[in-house]
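User: For my dataset I need records formatted as: sequence, then structure tokens, nothing else. Please produce one.
Assistant:
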Amino acid sequence: MEVDEERNRVPGNRTPEEHVAYIFDEVIPKMCKKDVMIDVIGMGDGGPIVAEYLKGNWERWEGRVKAVCVGSGPVWLGERVDGAEGFGKFWAERARAYVQSDEPLDTPLTGREDFGCNCYSAGQNEALELVMPKAYKSMLKFFQLVNDVPGYRELAEMTTGVDDYGVEAVA
């Protein structure tokens, strides 16, 4: 099937990067009041793309984004998010990755070094497309926790986690 780039593509949404920028630059400002806090979910390639967008536009979104969850395969596909200040600090303290794993849902996993945030099992390892239906309730509970606890932040010193090989390790 031949794709007509003008007729078969939505302007501002031709690539995943354009889509993320369109949502943040066009949709949210038009649909939400300026004082509304938002939570963000990025799935698959969208996780690193959201992280990269927010990192580059943190000055604008710092006061609006409350927390972020990403659904991912076992490997972070973007640049590692790090830093003791600004967006890196936010990401380390208020983001979570729900990662494909054979471990039960919500089991802490190693991976913070790659993802830049705490990682938890998505409770399935069959397909990336199944992360959201399996882990969305956990993501929403995390958003509620961040909302309900003033000053909430994730701790880097998780007690234990399970690596991709099922071996328990200190994170």
